[in-house]
Amino acid sequence: MAPSRSTTLLILGASGDLTSRLLLPGIATLLRSQPSRRVEIVGADLRELAAGDWHDRVRTALNVGGAQGAAAKSVLSSTRYVSTDATDPVALRALLDSIACDRLVIYFALPPHISELVCGTLEQIGVPDGTILAIEKPFGDSLESARRLNALVTRIVPEERIFRIDHFLGLHTVLNLLGLRFANRLLEPTWDRDGIERVEILYDETVTLEGRAGYYDRNGALRDMIQSHLLQIMALIAIEPIASVGERDPISQVLRAASVVDPVRHSRRARYTAGAVEGRDVPDYVAEEGVDPSLGTETLAEVQVEIANPRWAGVPFILRSGKALAGVRKRAIVHWKAPAHVPKGLSGRDTPDRFVIDFKPDGFELHLTTNGKGDPFTLEQTVLRGELGGGSLLPYGEVLASILDSDPRLAVRGDAAEECWRIVEPVLDAWRSDAVPMHEYRAGSRGPRGWRTN
């Protein structure tokens, strides 16, 4: 049931792409699904933005998201935009004093270094009782900065009122992973080093920079996707059995046991060159507007992670993400080991069985070895497909619902955010020293030649 208290969502960095493209549409789907919910939206940023322009952005998002009726009217009648410097104590104090509500949610749609500066200001001036801090990824830009930011935010509010955002961990994604793993006797007994040969977690995109060079060129595929998203998905796949949904310590336990053992041998990076994606010409990455070639930013990254515990020792987890590729692949692939023995007289395809979990749209494929249709003595692969439950909300709608309801199940815990940086920092060091070569791939291709693509 929607909360009865009045809630204000203060978005810092509201003039940016994240707010228009993801946050506001997410709120719209939330209001469409829960029309009795009441929330005031206040946008704030350094940029000057006319009141009419801000209202148009909010109205467009509400229309696209299907929010109608009293909920949409309430948002439009109360929303406002403030041009201010949130790192200035006097300006931020004035902004907070202008907000009257029972509960305040401060959403940091800001780069990590700016978020840290704003949090330093909040520590100086204080926040209203019950304030929730929602901090967008990446949480810090290194292990050191993540530790520093964790220490800072917990001096402002308690840990239970800190939401480190990972929209990949939307409610249905989490529940689908847990349900498949723990609610099926077929899967759980083989979900370990004795049954599984390797696990791949892939997030291949056809999109290019889409006007986000200012953010992406300072981060690249490893920081943008693997550090902040795919390691969390890996932890959910690899966790030990849990007693109830929402337990977060098992995730941290997996991450503490994880590492890239040899950053030079177990990591790869690449950058796209000119080509065509879905019929659209794409220039070299280094020729894209806003790109600084001297940064050496990768657009495709792959790392091999090992989890040093009894369940997973020796099983490689291969995490890969890239842009401007031939097709969209957002999935985890569990490769079972080949059977110890196949009876004599049976021949044919001996591909080990696989279990594929698709994200966006959610579904699964079970690749099983069966007797051939024409010749029963010949083995072949049969694929069983199924759809998984999806919600009515966009991923950001699910995340915002958990924040507004003070439900921490979808939040990343502070130690988990630090462990993700610990895992990737040796790789970043190897790349900075050019110990790992920068490969190239044509935009619209499946990646560099010689890279395994399953």
Mean pLDDT: 91
Counting DSSP E segments of at least 2 residues, the number of strands comes to: 19
Helicity range of the residues? 25-40%
Q: How many domains, as an integer? A: 2
CATH architecture of the largest domain: 2-Layer Sandwich
Structural class: alpha/beta
Determine Rg (CA atoms, Å): 23 Å
Report how far apart the termini are. 44 Å
The unreliable regions are none
Strand content: 15-25%
Determine the number of helices (DSSP H or I, runs of at least 4 residues): 12
Overall geometry comes to globular
Q: In CATH terms, what is the fold-level topology of the largest domain? A: Dihydrodipicolinate Reductase, domain 2
Describe the largest sheet.
Answer: 11 strands, mixed
The CATH superfamily of the largest domain appears as: Dihydrodipicolinate Reductase, domain 2
Task: Supply the CATH class of the largest domain.
Answer: Alpha Beta
Give a written overview of the molecule.
The protein is an alpha/beta fold. The chain has two domains: 7-136, 3-Layer(aba) Sandwich (Rossmann fold), CATH 3.40.50.720; 169-390 and 412-442, Dihydrodipicolinate Reductase, domain 2, CATH 3.30.360.10. It has twelve helices and 19 strands. Strands 7, 8, 9, 12, 13, 14, 15, 16, 17, 18 and 19 form an eleven-stranded mixed sheet that branches. Strands 3-2-1-4-5-6 form a six-stranded parallel sheet. Strands 10-11 form a two-stranded antiparallel sheet. The longest helix is centred in the middle third of the chain and has 19 residues, at 220-238. The protein is globular, with a radius of gyration of 23 Å. The model has no long low-confidence stretch (mean pLDDT 91).
